[in-house]
Each structure stands twice: as structure tokens, then as C-alpha cells.
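so my prof wants the structure for this chain in the C-alpha cells format not the other one, which i didnt know existed until like an hour ago. anyway here's the sequence
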Amino acid sequence: MTFLAIYLFVGLIAGFIAGLLGVGGGLILVPVLSWIYAHQGFPAEYNIHMALGTSLATIVLTSLSSLRAHHGHGAVRWSIVRRIAPGIVLGTLAGAIAAAWLPDFGLRVFFTVFLFYAATQMLFGLAPAARSRGLNNGSADVSLPRNSVFKPRAHRQLPGWPGMTLAGSVIGLVSSWVGIGGGTLSVPFMTWCNVRFQEAIGTSAAIGFPIAVSGAIGYAVSGQATAGLPEWSLGFVYLPALAAIAAMSMLSAPWGARMTHRLPVAKLKRIFAGLLYILAVRMAYSLY
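here's what i got, hopefully its the right format
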């Protein structure tokens, strides 16, 4: 019951942060779940695998509400989704299935490096970012920062089918190894190709769904042959954590989205970046 209460609390916080800042909860869920699983006595060599699988499974449910909201505001470019989805599914499935053969240490190193990248991106705006609040409902003024060195050239466009498939495969592969819906990668990619930032955010929400479904299926299948996993596990997906976290995050995400218009989100993003740095350092320390 103690761990169930922790899962409920984690889901509440992850959903609120996702709604407030427009970022996936996986960056928080994976290190926290890995820590909780260790204290529950789960097999140490598979803690990170189960954290990744469970994180992606929760995104299956939470991404639907985000997708519905962005679609309602006309911010989803479905033509992009159709073109990038095959690569997304291929890369995510391949990464999730391959993860069963990857050592715990290697996945932890990869996730730690990605945490430092995500924190730096959020803190210094390495990807084109909105200058005002309200990213979640697509109503913000989302022009690029003035004099941004990352401002895309006017002639740059999205690539053709081969390029979109390759981009989707890379986004899916990386997402499967860090347990996120891909927005940290797909939004910079689309804005770099001159997709309007509002539409990049909305389209990223739609892309997150096939990433989550493919990743959850991949981790559930790849963990089936693994001995010693805890009871109530579906491969590398721990069902009690999935149910508790998904239920609470779906409740708290809309609350976070509403608070976007009332709180200083720019300052909160810097605070969240600091939290990601702390988690990254904590993960790095655990490697020794």
C-alpha cells in the first residue's frame, strides 16, 4: 500500500508537470520508477527496462487527452503524422525489443546523457521555443527568440518520405530508450523544417501516441521471456504502477494546463531544468 501511494503521488506530479510545461512525464517517471523498483526489491538488472516500459505505457493513455486538445484547436498536421508514423513505429518497436538485450548499465548511461541534453535544451532554449505562455492549448504567440541562431532558413522544408521515415525511426528509437513521447526530439525537428511552432507542438502530441503504443508493446513482448520479474508484470510493464500513475496523471494534466495561464512558466521551466540536472547527476552517480 505504501508503494501504491507513492505511485499515485508520482502520477499526480508527472501529469501536472506535463500539463503545465508541455513536456512528457517520462523524464521524471523513468528515474523515479527505477528508484522505486529498486526499493521494492525488483531484479536490479531490469529496473531501468521496467521503468522505460511502464513510462511508455502510461503515455498511451495520457497522450490521448493531449492529442484531443490539440486537434480541437486545429494544431495537428495530420499529413506530417501520416508521413512520419511508419518510421516512428519501426524505430520504437526495434528499440524496445532490442532493449531486452541491452545491459542495464548501457541504458542508464544513454538515459543520463539524454537527461543532460533535455535539461540544457530547456534551460538555454537550444530548440526554438515559445516566448510566451499557453503552449498546451495552442493559443500562444510562439515566434522564435529574436536573433536566434537556431532560426531555420526560409527555404527549408520537411523532407520526402525517405527522410521522414529516417527521422521517425531515429525519434522512435531514442524515445524507446528514454521512455518519452518524443516531443523533445520531434518539436525541434519540425520547427527546424519551418513547421509553425504551435503546429509542431500539436503534431508532436499526435506522434507521441504511436511512440507510446509501439514502445509499450515492444517492452511487454521483449520481457516475456525474462525470468524473475515481479508478479503483475506484463513483460517489462509493471501493471500496478501503470494503473496508478495513468489514473492520477490524467486527472492532474488538465489542472496543470489551466495553471499555465496563471503561473510564470518561463521561470518554472528553469526550475524544472534544474530538477532534470539533479536527476541526471543522481543517475550518473548511480553508475559508479
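also thought this was worth mentioning. Confidence is low (pLDDT under 50) at residues 127-150.
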